[in-house]
Fold this protein.
Amino acid sequence: MTTQPQDPHVTPDAPETPDALVRTGSPVTPDGPVTPDGPVTPDALISLLGERLHAEVVQHFVALTDAPPEYVERQVVECLRYLYLVSRHREQLSGLFLPVEQDIDEIWHYLILQTREYREWCEQRLPGRFFIEHRSIGYDAYQQEPGREQVIEEALRWIPLYVREFGPFDEGALPHWTIVRFLHDQLSMSLRDIAALQPAGAP
């Protein structure tokens, strides 16, 4: 499954942003996140979403799938990372498909169904301050739609952004990001090599 944020609708008069950590020691302000000293941590993303909603999402998908809680917690973190990237890097990622697994897409859909909380989260807590609309297609359709060269070009646009915001991919992230797993398993790229990827044309 690949997901693509639709052209976002910006709410011009968003309420003042509440204090919420996006990085250790770095609060979100009405002007955006404070320049960080390190990567955005999972705890920071959970704080942005809210402990109550995070616990609700994890509990729902543990009951639905019978997956271990720690695995579901990682799924939720990768979903939050995806949406944080889309929000923070709106111009670079607008219109791109970021290939994540179906389970991540379903977590995103569940969050959207919590309409009030999701809108507040997008428009007041995430750095881009806009409502992230949902669209998804099957991975097979995605492979046919853009073509191999475009798939690679798009991966080179968003993978460095992920590494910049959250640090290198680790083994726990591989089940949730289709292209990263493909690079690792099928092309025998190490996680260090993937972390070193640069956008096309970068010096």
Remarks:
- The two ends are 32 Å apart (CA to CA).
- DSSP finds ten helices and eight strands in the chain.
- Residues 6-35 have pLDDT under 50 and may be disordered.
- Strands lie at 2-3, 9-10, 21-23, 26-29, 32-33, 98-99, 130-131, 136-137.
